[in-house]
Amino acid sequence: MVPALLILLKATTLQADLLPDKKFLLLPPVNFTIKVIGLAQVLLCWDPNPDQEQGNANLQYHVKINAPEEDDYETRKTKSKCVAPLHQGFAASVQTILWNNGFLRASSWVSAELKTPPGSPGTSVVNLTCITNTVASNPTHLRPYKVSLRCTWLAGKDAPEDTHYFLYYRYGSWTEECQDYSKDTLNRNTACWFPTTFINGKGLEWLAVHVNGSSRLTAIKPFDQLFALHAIDQVNPPMNVTAETEGTHLSIQWEKPVSAFPTQCFDYEVRIYNTKNGYVQVEKVTTNKFISNIDGISKYSIQVRAAVSSACRAAGRWSEWSQLIYVGQEEQRPLAEWFLIVLTATSCFILITFSLICRICHLWTKLFPPIPAPKSSIKDLFVMTDSGKAGSTETEVEVVSYVDEPGFEVLESSTF
Ligand SMILES: *[C@@H]1O[C@H](CO)[C@@H](O)[C@H](O)[C@H]1NC(C)=O
Ligand SMILES: *[C@@H]1O[C@H](CO)[C@@H](O)[C@H](O)[C@H]1NC(C)=O
Ligand SMILES: *[C@@H]1O[C@H](CO)[C@@H](O)[C@H](O)[C@H]1NC(C)=O
Ligand SMILES: *[C@@H]1O[C@H](CO)[C@@H](O)[C@H](O)[C@H]1NC(C)=O
């Protein structure tokens, strides 16, 4: 009896040892704050709860972003940076969590929020778009490539006429205000140009753009937008495209575009257009050379465009096509020119002949009336009376010729 009781006792204490946290209470963090530390960038900070039973080093935090866009993640730190548009405010919650043998235990939540910045509805900018472009800078410079940035937008539909918009960008820890604006018809800024920026052409961070404004009539709502560099980068076209033919053999070469990315980071498309039959051939290439067969009797136009390959960056846009270059038989162009010359000459000849004919016809009508004039005495009478009535000589002539003809006919029929 006694040993049985002992075994039972032992079993219950064992169970209590296995689950020591059954009564262990997880407390939420304290002093949770959200602080704006840059354009479209906040820092979330909290402290561990001072009343939390110590001795458990496995405490973690579960952060939940509630606005502007839902997101959640876990961290062991007590600080967290977030990048998000802030023009609609920002809200987040955090709780203490503990993973134990695959089971999650969590405290209650603590929350904080940033209020929506003030401003009248409909006054913030709309349709904000930005593109970047890489330009070569001084090769001796620390950075051989510079990135330019151009943004355009439209004034909000309810923005007063005196609204003045200001654009700022942030890349990493760099923030700059626009110095070079273009204006709409009401003299409001609607575009901005940064010839050089602190943007890293190969960077992976978000580009944050902030447009706020001022007006004497009302508060202008600010607007934030984040851009992924790969999506807005306008890649330069390939350089120095050359092509040569040898019989039916066409060989095209080019150099990589002006870009911070190295040679192996580019995909190309070659476009070969047969000007004789209108046939277009477009080929994808990953090297700087393309060889093709041609018919040897046509003239071809060639263009190449580039894009940063997915091996080096997320898929972006194609560059513009390079300048047209032509190869192949040159006979087509002189032929076309001859055709044009002949066509022009023929047209001129026809025009001159036609105008000559017209002149002759005109002479005829002028010469015609005097011939029959002396032949009929009745007609003379008519002319006399008619010129007396009508003022213009033209009507006079017409009447004469009209009257004249029946007279002739009568005369002729009477003679036969
Ligand atoms: C919370 O903030 C207050 C005031 O800043 C500070 O006195 C206190 O020490 C903080 N609590 C913890 C646990 O750090
Ligand atoms: C601005 O954007 C809206 C919606 O995104 C679109 O319907 C409109 O056509 C755009 N306006 C202009 C002028 O691009
Ligand atoms: C616009 O935003 C910039 C950067 O945050 C700030 O320095 C400036 O005071 C703001 N201007 C207005 C008119 O709100
Ligand atoms: C392209 O050609 C020009 C002139 O032929 C030359 O100066 C330039 O160095 C070439 N570009 C490259 C990248 O080699």
UniProtKB/TrEMBL annotation:
One record GO biological process: eosinophil differentiation
InterPro entries (alphabetical): FN3_dom, FN3_sf, Ig-like_fold, Short_hematopoietin_rcpt_2_CS, TypeI_recpt_CBD
GO molecular function: interleukin-5 receptor activity
Membrane topology value: Single-pass type I membrane protein
Sorted UniProt keywords: Disulfide bond, Glycoprotein, Membrane, Receptor, Repeat, Signal, Transmembrane, Transmembrane helix
Localization (cell): Membrane
Top-rank taxon: Eukaryota
Signal peptide: 1-16
Purpose of the protein: Cell surface receptor that plays an important role in the survival, differentiation, and chemotaxis of eosinophils. Acts by forming a heterodimeric receptor with CSF2RB subunit and subsequently binding to interleukin-5. In unstimulated conditions, interacts constitutively with JAK2. Heterodimeric receptor activation leads to JAK2 stimulation and subsequent activation of the JAK-STAT pathway.
Protein name: Interleukin-5 receptor subunit alpha
Gene source species: Jaculus jaculus (Lesser Egyptian jerboa)
Source species taxonomy: Eukaryota, Metazoa, Chordata, Craniata, Vertebrata
Name of the coding gene: Il5ra
